Amino acid sequence: MADNESKIAKGSFVLLLGSFIFRIGGFIYRFILTWLLAPADYGILGLTLPFQNFLNITASGGLPSAIAKYVAEYSAVDNEQMEQQVIRTSFKITIVMSVIGATLMFLIATPIAIGWWGKPEAVLPLQLVAVITPFSVIVGLYRGVFQGYYEMTDILITKAFEQLGMILFAVVFVLIGWKVAGAVLATVIGFVFASLSAVWLFKKDVTSKFKTGPKKISSSEEWKIVIMLLKFSIPVVITGLAEVLLYDIGTLFIGANLASSFAGYYTNASAIARLPLIVSMSVATSALPAASEAFSLQNHELLSTYIHQSYRYVIIIVLPLCVGTAVFANPLLGLLFGAEYTAGAVALQILVMGMLCFAIYTIASSISQGLGKPIIPMISLVLGVIIQALCSIILVPIWGIGGAALATTISTAFIMFVCIFYTHKISKVELAIKDFSKILFASLIMGLVCYFIPKTSLGIFLGLIVGVIVYILALILIKGLKKDDLKLAYKTARKTGPLQPKLNKIIDKLSRYTTD
Fold first, then answer.
1. Is the pLDDT reported for residue 2 higher than 70?
2. What percent of the chain has pLDDT over 90?
3. Which residues pair with 515 in a beta bridge?
4. 21: exposed, middle or buried (C-beta count within 10 Å: 0-12, 13-18, 19+)?
5. Which value, to the nearest 10 degrees, does the dihedral of the CA atoms of residues 278, 283, 288, 290 take?
């Protein structure tokens, strides 16, 4: 069972390390464009981002998650023919859906930019979003395959090509005067590079594993596979669309009610608030196929282990991160984007609590999907979006970007509680409430200490050092640190080269104060 139990930690660690690096790259991208573009132009770019995400999810039809689930299941029982057929059929479905999605995006660009927002300068950037779709969908499907085979490093490589292309060409295009349209066009090129790398990695790491060639099947047999995939993916795509709306519906209402510059302030505040999601998304990516495998093997003990590991890895890292971000919201925005963007500090303080709820929801959602019940996160998210839309209609005109942030936090808290309740009702795995309460207590103690540290750029770094020390000491004092918590620490130490021996000594000392 040791190999099985390591899949959550191993897969999550690879994605966590890579996602952290790429999140830094994402901030470099935002940092550069913040200084190269006027706040109003940057706000227009922020208004296009929800449509990029919305269209990519719609066009792919939720198939990446379906591929990951069924590839993992058929691989577990050594059914190679079905593994191959799931991949081939998914690609056929996607070709049709990507064309439809791109066409619709191009047609609705003008009505949205002019008819709803009253911002004609947003027309061309929204039209260019349509060009992104075919390439982003191809990359998404290949990443679903890599996820199903636990080839997490390949996912990171495609993200590296995507991000490097996007950053380099965005700088060039903006400098030559193409402004927002140039930034969006750079995203197209980034996905082209990612697509090419995905094709190469697929041939190298996936098709090379197949011992037999593809087997021809009848049209009726393939339609059964299509129905199987769509039956799973339709709830997933609705869930994905609802997630995008939950992230960005506030941005859309800001675009309709406030000046473009406020969309820029909110976009950057939202970007920082989502930083803790690096951890939850990394763990969730491993949790879905792991839960699916344990479920297909009918191994409840293994399933219970996966679920407890997933929640704990997320909460023990994300909770203190969210508290620290809320405490240092103002200097963080000023340091990264300039003094003008500190106007989003209150929104960031509210949003980061909402993202904590969303991080926990993400784990429950992936477990639910792995158990073959994607309807649960779908229903909770749809209800959450309705709640957020109603709250945004009321709060944004009254409180501006702070109202948008509060609407997001209210809705994410709702979906977290609903999804956790029903997912664990199905899995019959009890949550470790006592353990999580200890982590909450330690995080609040850390936040209280950091509150008295000066809110300056230097204070951020001082708060990081002091906060980590206080948090760990608090966990030790209340016996909230477990041996499993140090697995990621040891894995991280192994990647630090000459620093590994010293880090291992520190971790070894901490292990004396852990519980089983």
1. no
2. 17
3. 482
4. middle
5. 160
The pLDDT assigned to 296 comes to 67
42 half-sphere exposure, CB direction, 13 A CA radius: 21
CA–CA distances in Å: residue 179 to residues 41, 130, 252, 308, 332: 8, 18, 21, 47, 26
Report residue 260 as tokens.
Answer: 């473009």
For residue 456, what are its two tokens? 């300056």
Residues facing 482 on adjacent strands: 515
Residue 149 CA to its chain's centroid (Å): 20
Residue 14 banded pLDDT, cuts 50, 70, 90: low
Q: Residues 47-68: pLDDT tens digits?
A: 887 787 776 666 555 677 778 7
Q: For 42-59, b where at least 16 C-beta lie within 10 A, e where not — what string? A: bbbbbbbbbbbbbbbbbb
* DSSP-based three-state secondary structure for 515: strand
Number of other residues whose CB lies within 10 A of the CB of residue 421? 13
Residues 239 and 377: beta-carbon distance below 8 Å: yes
Query: What is the C-alpha to C-alpha distance for residues 224 and 149, in angstroms, rounded to an integer?
Result: 23
**Which residue, among 67, 61, 69, 92, has the nearest Cα to 237 in the 3D structure?**
61
Helix (H, G, I), strand (E, B) or coil at 480: coil
* Range of lowest pLDDT (18-32, 265-279, 348-362): 18-32
252 versus 285: the higher-pLDDT residue is: 252
Both tokens assigned to 229: 């995939």
Please report the pLDDT score of residue 17 as a whole number: 57
Would you put residue 453 in left (φ > 0), alpha (ψ -120 to 50) or beta? Answer: beta
Report d(CA 147, CA 346) in Å as an integer.
37
Q: Can you say whether the dihedral through the CA atoms of 38, 40, 44, 45 is positive or negative?
A: positive
Q: How confident is the model at residue 448 (pLDDT cuts 50, 70, 90)?
A: very high
* Lookup result for tokens 């991949």: 87
Q: Is 52 helix (H, G, I), strand (E, B) or coil?
A: helix
Mean pLDDT, residues 136-163:
82
Q: What is the pLDDT of residue 411?
A: 93
Average pLDDT, the chain: 81
Tokens 């059914």, located at residue: 79
**In which element (H, E) is residue 229 found?**
helix 219-257
Q: Exposed, middle or buried by CB within 10 Å (0-12, 13-18, 19+), for 256?
A: middle
How far CA 112 is from CA of 44, 100, 395, in Å, comes to 12, 18, 22
Residue-wise pLDDT tens digits, 473-484? 998 888 877 777
CA-to-CA distance for 71 and 90, rounded, in angstroms? 11
The one-letter amino acid at 123: V
Cα distances (angstroms) measured from residue 472 to each of 162, 321, 461, 486: 36, 13, 17, 12
Half-sphere exposure of 358 (CA within 13 A, CB side): 31
